[in-house]
Write a structure and sequence with these properties.
Order of helices and strands: EHEHEEHEEHHEEEHEHEHEH
Strand content: 15-25%
CATH topology of the largest domain: Rossmann fold
Helix content: 25-40%
Oligomer: single chain
Structural class: alpha/beta
Number of domains: 2
CATH architecture of the largest domain: 3-Layer(aba) Sandwich
């Protein structure tokens, strides 16, 4: 690894994902780490939160982890904050790891990082599935994931109810690896990866290197009602993009033709990600046109637009 940097990293959430990632994260050349979580150690999750023992029950998780780290690595400055994350924290880390398991927490963390332009490594696991992403502060992935989370009914995600311990470990280790890429300046693309524990398959979505700049909210549609309103107002054509379109290297002929005719367009796709990426590209190329993207799965629109 490189010699120690002056970076300050923030780890939010001290559950199973954090346990899987933490030993590897300690090898990163940061100067200071802050651990943040308001939970105490309980017995039920001990199999996947293996850095805890029964002797740690009822103690704050971050305090126990702070001691675990100091017993093994005295060269790292580690601060334990035994409280839940809130957007008004009075310090600005250089990199954030999100290991939380609630939708509301993830929304709050994304908004904080987006507002203060802080890179975020997002990790989540539930039952046999998981997801991990590196989010650049200017990435349209921030918009996509925020729109996706805000479009749900706030049912809390949880690492309980039959979660597969090996999936938690897989996602946590992948998040740590993204941290290594960050410190090695390897990340040149924003990427979002989903893991299916039953098939042992990863599905990865990447944004073109030139797509770091985000589309404005004026171009992003985040609800069905907004979609219908814009469709009527601008008399838009609806174009469905392919599942694996990569912009700006791929420009569908149908889309080009419609824009050149002077029409207005709403782009949709399987998950909203390609549409969000494409609108950032085409809204610059065709500045006099009204081009929008639905920042969510196209399937959720079908009953409304048919």
């Amino acid at each position: 690894m490189k010699t120690s940097s002056k970076k300050h990293i923030l780890l939010i959430g001290a559950g199973g994902l954090c346990h899987a990632a933490l030993p590897s994260i300690l090898d990163l050349p940061f100067e200071k780490m802050t651990l943040m979580d308001g939970d105490v150690v309980t017995e039920e999750p001990l199999p996947r939160q293996w850095l805890f023992t029964k002797n740690d029950l009822d103690q704050f998780k971050v305090v126990v982890l702070q001691k675990w780290i100091s017993d093994r690595n005295s060269n790292k400055s580690v601060v334990a904050l035994p409280k839940y994350f809130h957007e008004e924290i009075d310090f600005r880390p250089d990199l954030v790891f999100d290991f939380t398991d609630r939708l509301s927490s993830k929304q709050s963390i994304m908004k904080f990082c987006q507002k203060h332009k802080i890179p975020l490594i997002h990790a989540a696991s539930q039952k046999n599935h998981g997801a991990v992403a590196f989010l650049h502060p200017e990435s349209s992935l921030f918009h996509h994931l925020l729109a996706d989370l805000e479009g749900k009914d706030n049912t809390e995600m949880s690492c309980n109810d039959g979660v597969t311990t090996s999936v938690v470990g897989t996602i946590g280790m992948q998040a740590a690896h993204l941290g290594w890429l960050y410190f090695e300046d390897v990340i040149i693309q924003n990427g979002y990866s989903m893991f299916d524990g039953k098939s042992n398959q990863w599905e990865t979505f990447k944004l073109h290197q030139g797509m770091a700049d985000k589309p404005t909210f004026d171009h992003l549609i985040t609800s069905v009602d907004q979609f219908i309103s814009i469709q009527h107002k601008y008399q838009t054509t609806i174009l469905h993009l392919g599942e694996h379109a990569v912009f700006p290297s791929c420009e569908p002929d149908e889309l080009q033709a419609e824009l050149l005719r002077g029409g207005n367009v709403i782009l949709i796709c399987k998950n909203g990600m390609e549409a969000s990426t494409a609108v950032a590209h085409f809204s610059k190329k065709f500045k006099d046109k009204h081009i929008f993207a639905f920042a969510g799965p196209a399937d959720s629109l079908i009953p409304s637009i048919e």
